[in-house]
Every structure is written in structure tokens, then in C-alpha cells.
Design brief:
alpha+beta, single chain, two-stranded antiparallel ribbon, nine-stranded mixed beta sheet, 359 residues
């Protein structure tokens, strides 16, 4: 048993050095290329409309607010200023979303975003997105990269196609620090014992973002209030939870396997599903010793089997917001196909670690 485990560990470490690292380097190179163009577009936006100040900057070799969705697909979050005159209302009526309402007694004119406030006093994510989309479209025509950057039409999201190769979604957002949404108040589960109180305090202080994007849980049945709602996003909190032990390494292997073998019709699986699975595995194995580098093989197998189970049940609850299903809107046939492919991968890795050399 030990011999089989150490064989698997050897092959996984080799996989990380060869395949995961080369994926990482290629993506880092792409990010530099893409961010140069996006920064230029956002600089033009800022000239036209100083309220949309670009927050995309490099800190310690990383671009703050940039998420890699796939090797050629990215999301850039543009943080807006002055949310202070609004109350954050999260009463659970819109799964995964919240609204921003003018604080009692605050005048509409006190807000920097006055023209985006609805008659009922809500700050409309949809109206801000629509204005931003117009500005980005104009900026694409004016910026110095206009020959290689185009707006993607027929979507209410702000999406750019760069060099016909890369897609970047730019999402305006507010950073909410020092508060925690009511819809995530069940977290952490006290009976689980992970994460510890200090880490919980850090994660909650990190807070979350409110994104002005379409809430996929509501597509096709939106009332005006719902389309004015903001989508809750916990990327930084999740990243904090995945520090330590072999968690990041595990996620890196899963993302690489996904890019190489689970890029399937209907796009059933993305890297965020993989991140979510690692978080659930952390709850199943709350002890730090279970995330020692020597346990990498066990953790990976556990995650792949859990992923197969979610695909077969056609349900993948968001880690912080269990009422939100991350498989919502995915075709059952695409999920079934992904379950078969994931099972094939898991079986191959488990029965023949050497197969990782070809995977």
C-alpha cells in the first residue's frame, strides 16, 4: 500500500513540475499581454468618465482583481469608489445576490452614482454595467490597441476579444470589507472544526465583492429588482482558505487536468468548480496533518470521486452560498459526459500512476 502511495506521490510531484508549471508560465505570459491591452482600454475609459478609475495594477507580480477562468479566458474586476451612502441588503430573496439601498435619510444627490439609483432607492448593477459597456466600446475604438481588441456583441456583460485568441470580461464591483453576508452566516459549520477561529476571523475580515454581472441563477426570469441586484463573490476569502499544506498544489493539478482533458462541449466544468471541490475536501479532512504533502494522492482521489458524485447528481453547491448551484443552466448531457470523463481520469490515475506522464 505504502509503495503504491509513494509511486503516486512521485508521479504527482513530477506532474506538478512538468505540466502544472508549464501551464502556469504560459498563463502568466498571457496575463501580461492581456493586462497591457486592458489597462490601455481602461485608461481611455477613465479619461471619458473619471468615476471609473482603473484598479488593475500589479502587486508583487500578481494583478489585483484578475481571475483566470481558463487559459484563454479571464475576468478583471474593476473596483468602484464610494459605496458608503448605501446599505447592504442581503435577505436571501435572490440566491447569490444582494442589493444596495440608499441609507435612511440619505439624499440621492449625496451619491457619486446618482443617476444609477432607481426610484425605490436601489443602486442598479444593470444600469452601471450598461453605462460602463458604452464607455468600454468607445475606448476600444480610441485606444492604441484598437486593431487587436474588439467588444463582444450580443451580451449585457462587458467582454473583450483580444487578438482573436483571448476573452476578457471586465466587471465593475464594490469591495465589502469588515462585513459578512447573512446568506453565508451558517459558515463555518461548528461541528466540522475547520477552519480554526483565527483563520475564520481573517477570512471574514477579508470580506467579499459585489459584482455588477448577470446572476446566472436567475437568467431568463428576472424582475427589475433582480436585474438591479449585485452578485456576491468570495474569491479572496477562498484563496485565503486554500493556503497551507498541499491545498494549492492539489488545485493546480485539478486545473491542469481540467484544461487538458475536461474542456468539454457545453463547458460543464471550469476552474471555479475545482476550487469549490478542494474547499469541500478541506471540510472532510479538517486536520492539518491530512494536508501534508505526503497525502496529496489521497486528497486528489477524494476530490475526483466527489466531483463525479456532484456531476452525476447534477448539483454543485457554492461553498459559501449553498443555495446557489454552480451547475445551474448546464445541460444534463454535458454533465453526464463530464462525469464519465472524470471517472476515466480518476480510474487511470488510481490504477496506474505512471499514466500521469501522458495525461
Amino acid at each position: 500500500m505504502m509503495a503504491a502511495q509513494s509511486k503516486l506521490l512521485y508521479q504527482l510531484n513530477k506532474y506538478v513540475q512538468e505540466k502544472c508549471q508549464s501551464r502556469k508560465s504560459a498563463i502568466a505570459k498571457t496575463i501580461r499581454e492581456v493586462c497591457k491591452v486592458v489597462q490601455d482600454v481602461l485608461k481611455e475609459v477613465e479619461v471619458q468618465e473619471p468615476r471609473f478609475i482603473s484598479s488593475l495594477c500589479e502587486v508583487d507580480g500578481r494583478f489585483d482583481g484578475l481571475e483566470v477562468l481558463a487559459p484563454t479566458e479571464f475576468e478583471v474586476v474593476l473596483y468602484l469608489n464610494q459605496m458608503g451612502v448605501f446599505n447592504f441588503v442581503d435577505d436571501g430573496t435572490i440566491p447569490g445576490c444582494a442589493v444596495l439601498k440608499l441609507s435612511d435619510g440619505r439624499k440621492r444627490s449625496m451619491s457619486l452614482w446618482v443617476e444609477f439609483i432607481t426610484a425605490s432607492g436601489y443602486l442598479s448593477a444593470r444600469k452601471i454595467r450598461s453605462r460602463f459597456q458604452t464607455l468600454v466600446a468607445q475606448a476600444c475604438d480610441k485606444c492604441s490597441y484598437r486593431d487587436i481588441v474588439k467588444m463582444i456583441p450580443d451580451t449585457s456583460e462587458v467582454k473583450l476579444r483580444i487578438r482573436e485568441r483571448y476573452v476578457v470580461q471586465i466587471t465593475t464591483a464594490f469591495k465589502c470589507q469588515g462585513i459578512w453576508p447573512r446568506s453565508a452566516s451558517h459558515w463555518p459549520m461548528p461541528q466540522i472544526g475547520w477552519p480554526g477561529p483565527n483563520l475564520v476571523a481573517e477570512v471574514k475580515a477579508e470580506g467579499f465583492d459585489l459584482l455588477s454581472k448577470e446572476c446566472y441563477a436567475l437568467q431568463g426570469k428576472q424582475s427589475s429588482m433582480e436585474s438591479d441586484a449585485w452578485v456576491l463573490c468570495f474569491n479572496q476569502a477562498e484563496d485565503k482558505l486554500l493556503l497551507g499544506g498541499c491545498r494549492r498544489r492539489c488545485l493546480s493539478i485539478l486545473k491542469t487536468l481540467r484544461d487538458r482533458h475536461l474542456e468539454l462541449p457545453g463547458n460543464p466544468l471550469n476552474s471555479y468548480h475545482m476550487k469549490t471541490m478542494v474547499l469541500y475536501e478541506c471540510e472532510k479532512h479538517p486536520r492539518e496533518i491530512d494536508w501534508d504533502e505526503t497525502c496529496l494522492g489521497d486528497r486528489l482521489n477524494g476530490i475526483l470521486l466527489q466531483l463525479i458524485s456532484c456531476l452525476q447528481c447534477r448539483k454543485c453547491p457554492h461553498y459559501f452560498l449553498p443555495n446557489v448551484d454552480l451547475f445551474h443552466g448546464k445541460a444534463p448531457s454535458a454533465l453526464e459526459n463530464a462525469a464519465k470523463q472524470t471517472w476515466r481520469l480518476a480510474r487511470e490515475i488510481l490504477t496506474n500512476p505512471k499514466s500521469l506522464e501522458k495525461l
